[in-house]
Amino acid sequence: MMLRTVTLSLLALLSAALPSHAEDPAAYPTRKIRMLLPYAAGGGGDVVGRLLADKMGKTLGQSIYIENHTGAAGTLGTQMVATSANDGYTITVGGMTTHVLAPAIYPKLAYDPIKDFTTIGRVGTSSILLVATKDFAANDIKGLIALASKGEPIQYGSWGIGSTGQFCAEILMQQTGIKMDHVPFNGIAKLAGDLLGGHISLATLDMATATPLVKDGSIKALAACGERSPSLPDVATYKEQGVAFDRSLSWAMYAPAGLAPPIAQKLSAALKDALGDAEVKQKLLGLGITPQFVPGDEQRDINARDIAAWKQVAKDAGIEVK
């Protein structure tokens, strides 16, 4: 009995040590795929994920269902992806906050954005918009500086401490010398809702969330933190308005580290196919995202360089989340 117990224990240990992608990669996928998104339902990242999930699911021959897990500016849900089985059945769409900016400003981030993920490929590039209610007293950065010079208290909202939205606002303050009080929200959908309701007058939103609202006149855009978007060509960038900042911001798809190469290649091919679809392109542009596929290995190297560069930017701006 003791020998049998020891044998079973050894078998259990050996089983636990086996790679989690034991399924034949050539047969992948044989069941539904989970897209775990670190964004609130209805927010820009959520909309992007659902759009890609629909198209990629059809290409792969299996449905891709969505799970939303928010918190800590997207880092909690991203950590859940990092610790999931590396069998190809958990993927995510990550933005600048989760995979580039967070490691630049969180000294104790619970995951490594390079080592803990398999990068499937880039989705596209985008910007962050500085937006306001229609009756806000400023229409651009010059007007915002003039408003601040009057000594009036200015509050702005972002979708969380350490988010790209907060970072863009901090850069603006560092470069112009104006002072604004940060109001962090738990998720971008809640922030957009309070902006529309007039509970806050100024905010930073991702392009995917802000573009439809700007286009229909619900809110107005003061500036783009990043590149000028073809979706909102009349909105001038920070740099064009005298603020020395012109870095591009990217979205990419990820899976847990150690994903079998054949499975990674299938997911990458499905992503590339989705981004080549005319309808998907049009919808992404409508969300303020310029579709641009970049292979996973290349995007991983870009991320590594960007993290190092943004760490220096964060240090210069005095941005750190403890």
UniProtKB/TrEMBL annotation:
InterPro entries: BUG, Bug_dom1. SUPFAM superfamilies: Periplasmic binding protein-like II (SSF53850). It holds the Pfam family TctC. It comes from the Bacteria. Keywords: Signal. PANTHER family: BLR1237 PROTEIN, TRICARBOXYLATE-BINDING PROTEIN. Belongs to the UPF0065 (bug) family. This is Tripartite tricarboxylate transporter substrate binding protein.
